[in-house]
Amino acid sequence: MKSRNRLALVLLAIVALPLLSACGGSSDTASESGPALVEPIDGTDLSRITVTAKAAERLDLQTTAVRSAAGEGKQTVIPYAAVLYQPNGETWTYVSPKPLTFVRERIVIDRIDGDRVVLSKGPAPGTKVATVGVAELFGAESGIGQ
Fold first, then answer.
1. Element (H, E) at 9
2. Mean of the per-residue pLDDT values for the chain?
3. Would the pLDDT of 39 be above 90?
4. CA distances from 3 to 8, 42, 87, 131 (A)
5. Domains held by the chain: number
6. What is the CATH number of the domain that holds 111?
7. Under 8 Å CB-to-CB from 10, ≥6 apart: which residues?
8. What SS3 class is residue 73?
9. Range of 40's domain?
10. How does 60-78 read in b/e, with b if 16+ C-beta sit within 10 Å?
11. pTM of the model
12. What pLDDT does residue 101 have?
């Protein structure tokens, strides 16, 4: 099942990325370099992705806050839609430290209950994570479609 999810994610990124690249023409920060500005984060293999308001609207980018897992110690909960699987099995999510800005963060899944993912390692409660547009953010970060 994981292979099918990964394949679907890659295909979605390939199909949906043209939508992201068609989002230019806005006057906000990312528009200088297109609909998404991808900046490497020093000392890491990660990048900060800033999208234009128009790109976010076209992609229907959505976020939700990480929640504490009630009665489960320091574990937290995110929606399954916020999980990104890498081909090597690593799991990630895109956190949004400020509006229209996203950074991929490594997570460790304790268990999955339907569309609820309980994390043993991940962003703190209250942190915003992307739930819609995750594949497009990964495509922008990876340079797919450029």
1. helix 2-21
2. 83
3. yes
4. 8, 32, 8, 20
5. 1
6. 2.40.420.20
7. none
8. coil
9. 2-142
10. ebbbbebeebeeeeebbbb
11. 0.78
12. 98
HEC secondary structure over 85-126: ECCCCCEEEEEEEECCEEEEEEEEEEEEECCEEEEEECCCCC
Radius of gyration of the chain (CA): 15
3-12 average pLDDT score: 45
Which pLDDT value is given to residue 75?
92
Range 41-47 contact pairs with CB under 8 angstroms and sequence separation of 24 or more: 41/103, 46/103, 46/104, 46/141, 47/103, 47/104, 47/141
Q: What is the DSSP letter of 72?
A: S
Confidence band of 32 (pLDDT split at 50, 70, 90): low
* Chain segment 101-115, per-residue pLDDT in tens: 999 999 999 999 999
